[in-house]
Amino acid sequence: EHLADAGMPVVLAVAMMPGLNDNQVGPTMDVIARSRANIVAVNFQCATPFGGRFDIDAPRKLRLPDMFELMRQQCGLEPSGFFPVGSGSPLCNAYGRVAFIDGQWRHALKDLTVDDFMDLMGDDPVDFVRALTVGLSESVPYMAKQVMKNPRLLKKVVPLVGNDPLGWNWVSDRLLDSGEGSSFYVPLISDPRVSGSWFVGLQHVWRTKDNGGSQAFLEKYCNEFTGDYGNRPEPCGDWEALGGPAGAGEAGDLVSPLYGADKGGSYVVAVERTRSDKNTLWAATRRGRLFVSKNADAANAADVTFTRLDSASTPTRFVSGIVIDRNDANHAWVSFSGYDAYAAAAGTATGHVFEVTYNPGSGTATWKDISANIGDQPITDITLDHNTGDLYAGTDFGVL
User: Fold this and answer.
1) Phi and psi of 278, rounded to 5°?
2) How far is the CA of 360 from the CAs of 203, 275, 307, 356, in angstroms?
């Protein structure tokens, strides 16, 4: 009840009540098991979620090891599958994810170490656990951001969607093997027009056209739980670098000197597509380079070409968002993070939000600064209501 009041549903809370006995645990687990496609979040708190410990005259003052023993006896779940949560004693708060499959309980986090879990949890354990327990649609974006900051965790992170919690496949061998730099949060999108296509930004923009590869191959060699990964005959995942071979400095590396001497280095921070045109893709880099490709759906990934649209008169700052006009793939809005004051002091261009129109005939773009009365504050993202034409900008202080 305390956890539910704190906004953390789908959680098993075992209260420290007088007369607590083994029979109280199993029935509660059984009820919760019927929800959310048999994927259940379990959070044991032998303390309140508000910092104060229960102090009541129970027949025995249970702590987390006692709870683990009850779970082992009744559900067959070993204590090693649960992880400490929070900055307090690991003997007071723990989290686990379990699934009820074929009539028995299984740990869905069995391959995760405590260090892995701590990396995923980040700086705010309360928000992390709440995201995992509040529901599938809410937890997926949070987990994606937590994982993308540390690509190695992709090999271990457990599934949070689908009917089979053991059914996820690892597809990122080629991305890691490339050695390319990547953002803290890697830009990853599914193609809104071409089924099965995904794009991700490192130093190249990478593409898969079949959801990472043959499903049969992925299930056999790359499944997170059952795959024969050590004997795979080829890398897991069939990502290809657009514009050239993989690797820093190769053709298609959008942050390399191949695309100019200015605003170079770092990595791609934004990738966007539109439903209206399967050939167009916009991409941007951390230092303010902006690109458009008009053949992003080319059969041969190496044939994809990019045209650089920015100039010295546009900001040399992190591109925080791109939104493409769904009625005109050559028309987009672009936002920048950072402050104009610092840009001016550095002798670089100012501005926070721009309307950009690409002319395929000349290969050039027209930029219009529409920052207006935004003030000097970083823009974290932008989006467009295509029905009304209203453009929205996110900031650290709210939505404009």
Assistant:
1) -75, -10
2) 24, 19, 10, 13
CATH of the domain at 338: 2.120.10
Using an 8 Å Cβ cutoff, are 25 and 74 in contact?
Answer: yes
**51 and 187, same domain (yes or no):** no
Residue 263 has pLDDT above 90, yes or no: yes
The span from the CA of 347 to the CA of 342, in Å, is: 9
User: What is the C-alpha to C-alpha distance for residues 278 and 209, in angstroms, rounded to an integer?
Assistant: 12
Are 132 and 102 part of one and the same domain? Answer: no
Residue 47: predicted pLDDT: 42
Q: Decide if pLDDT at 61 tops 50.
A: no
d(CA 56, CA 94): 21
Q: Do residues 354 and 333 touch, judged by C-beta distance below 8 A?
A: yes
Domain that holds residue 144: 119-166
Instruction: Extract the runs of DSSP E, i.e. beta strands, from 242-330.
Output: 268-274, 277-285, 290-293, 307-308, 319-324
pLDDT, one tens digit per residue, over 129-156 is 555 554 444 455 555 555 555 555 555 5
Between 221 and 126, the higher pLDDT residue: 221
Supply the pLDDT for residue 104: 72
Is the pLDDT score of 284 beyond 70? yes
Under the phi-then-psi rule, with left for phi > 0, alpha for psi from -120 to 50, and beta for the rest, what region is 193?
alpha
CA–CA separation, 352 and 246 (whole Å): 32
Same structural domain for residues 352 and 233? yes
CB-CB contact of 77 with 70 (8 Å): no
pLDDT digits (tens, 9 = 90+) for 303-348: 999 999 999 999 999 999 999 999 999 999 999 999 999 999 999 9
151 with 104, same domain? no
Q: What is the number of structural domains in the chain?
A: 3
Where do runs of H (alpha helix) occur along the chain? 2-5, 25-32, 64-75, 114-121, 125-134, 136-148, 173-177, 215-217, 340-345
Q: What is the pTM assigned to this prediction?
A: 0.62
Cβ atoms of 317 and 377 closer than 8 Å? no
Identify whether residues 194 and 47 lie together within a single domain: no
Whole-number Cα distances in Å, 210 to 61, 199, 238: 55, 11, 8
Quote the tokens at residue 320: 């925080």
> Residue 223 carries which DSSP code?
B
